Amino acid sequence: MILVSFIDFLLVVVPVLIAVAYLTLAERKVMSLFQRRKGPNLVGPMGILQPFADALKLLVKEIVIPVQANKKMFIVAPIITLCFSLLGWVFIPLREDVLVSDINVSILFTLLVSALGVYGIVIAGWSSNSKYSLLGAIRSAAQMISYEVSLGLIIIATVIVAGSLNYVEIIMNQEIYWNILSCFPLLVMFYISAVAETNRPPFDLPEAEAELVAGYSTEYSGIGFAMFYMGEYANIILISCITVILYLGGWWGFILFNQFSFVVKLSFFLIAFVWVRVAFPRFRYDQLMRLGWLVFLPVGTGIVLFNSGIIYGLNI
Amino acid sequence: MTLSLVIYTAGYCVTNNHRTDLNKISAYECGYSPNSHESNQYNANFIIICLLFLLIDLEILFLVPFLYTVDSIDTTTWNIFIYCMCTIIGGIIFELLTSSFGKLGKIIKQNK
């Protein structure tokens, strides 16, 4: 029984890791196409083997543990970051019965896992015992938890329409009309909160190179750095999957691509992550906090009241 | 968890060099050793943000069971829901009007 669930978990996690590797390549190539140049195209045909070359390089690099760091916590931090990023993947359904664990409160668990992701960052920054790491980690963590609140409210406002916290139920509810028709402003707010939650540009001041070298992962090298990187991209793909499930109807097709609809919609959101990185300048830190607390929190609360008011008033 | 441990130990076993240079294992301080232990200080506003997150996230968690009763809302249920939401919103308004989010940016600018 444990072996079966472990194999289920591996069947989800190994393709996710390959997807993460190719997302790094896709990001570099798409960013370079936006800038009218070609991305990496030397390693394989059209650069297809580039992620494996990067992974191999990071694998054989020396693991430098600085002399002032707390050794145990320093080693644990990237491990738990990657662990929590991969843990959120067991709830994502590709079809009604193609998911590792079908529980009735999937959304709650997903919020839980993304809230636990802050632990890895804080432990990394604190255990490095270096000014830059600590500052970057604390700013990063404060940004992530601010947008946790906004994500929670927007998810509640969306799920009121569906009536259940189960991902499969929410997708079954969107068989005829996707949630984007009734919740389009929520999709916009959710996507912006998702970009801010995963510390991606234009919200990446805690990791901005000019300011803080590399934020919480300054002192990491080799496989530790690779695990932070993989965890960040796994988070990006996870939150894009959740966007597709909540707003775009999961596996229900539209006109074309009925068999691959989930993947096509998912890739649209992933390219949108890269697009947003290319197009917009960076937010200053107080503008970022203002957006999270003074804009998304009141608007999210208002939309929760609005949606539940409509459902109560029209006796749906 | 085991997968992450496996990846990390693979990386550790594959590397051939182990801490051979004094310059590599010192802190990232552009060449010199840090003179003071300033690394343990941070702004108090971040603690305020964390406390705010804690309280508001708990309030949001209390809103979650409401989703299961959305198909059969009575007038009494609605009244209680509005009462709870007014409490939450009152708390949020009070907190946001008297906290120092605007000052966080100015403090960060002064630190440079």
UniProtKB/TrEMBL annotation, chain A:
- What are the leading ranks of the lineage? Eukaryota, Rotosphaerida, Fonticulaceae, Fonticula
Instruction: Report TM segments.
Output: 6-26, 73-92, 104-126, 147-170, 176-196, 233-254, 260-280, 292-314
Q: Specify the protein's topology with respect to the membrane.
A: Multi-pass membrane protein
Q: Which reaction does it catalyse?
A: a ubiquinone + NADH + 5 H(+)(in) = a ubiquinol + NAD(+) + 4 H(+)(out)
E.C. numbers:
7.1.1.2
Which compartments is it annotated to reside in?
Membrane; Mitochondrion inner membrane
The protein's UniProt keywords, in alphabetical order, are: Membrane, Mitochondrion, NAD, Transmembrane, Transmembrane helix, Ubiquinone
Coiled-coil stretches are: none
- Output the Pfam families linked to this UniProt entry: NADHdh
GO MF terms, alphabetically ordered:
NADH dehydrogenase (ubiquinone) activity; NADH dehydrogenase activity
Native source species? Fonticula alba (Slime mold)
GO annotation, biological process: aerobic respiration
Please report the name of this protein according to its UniProt entry: NADH-ubiquinone oxidoreductase chain 1
By sequence similarity, the record places it as follows: Belongs to the complex I subunit 1 family.
User: Which Gene Ontology terms of cellular component type are present?
Assistant: mitochondrial inner membrane
Automatic annotation (TrEMBL), chain B:
Reactions catalysed, semicolon-separated, are: a ubiquinone + NADH + 5 H(+)(in) = a ubiquinol + NAD(+) + 4 H(+)(out)
Q: Name one Pfam family in it.
A: Oxidored_q4
Keyword vocabulary terms for this entry: Electron transport, Membrane, Mitochondrion, NAD, Respiratory chain, Translocase, Transmembrane, Transmembrane helix, Transport, Ubiquinone
Q: How does it sit in the membrane?
A: Multi-pass membrane protein
Task: Please give the InterPro entries that the UniProt record associates with this protein.
Answer: NADH_UbQ/plastoQ_OxRdtase_su3, NDAH_ubi_oxred_su3_sf
UniProt main location, coarse: membrane
- Enzyme Commission numbers on file: 7.1.1.2
Q: Which residues cross the membrane?
A: 46-68, 80-102
GO molecular-function terms, A-Z: NADH dehydrogenase (ubiquinone) activity
Location comes to: Membrane; Mitochondrion membrane
Q: Kindly state one GO CC term assigned in the UniProt record.
A: mitochondrial membrane
Q: What does this protein do?
A: Core subunit of the mitochondrial membrane respiratory chain NADH dehydrogenase (Complex I) which catalyzes electron transfer from NADH through the respiratory chain, using ubiquinone as an electron acceptor. Essential for the catalytic activity of complex I.
The entry's family comment says: Belongs to the complex I subunit 3 family.
In Swiss-Prot or TrEMBL terms, this protein is called: NADH-ubiquinone oxidoreductase chain 3
Q: Which organism is it from?
A: Fonticula alba (Slime mold)
- Give the lineage: Eukaryota, Rotosphaerida, Fonticulaceae, Fonticula
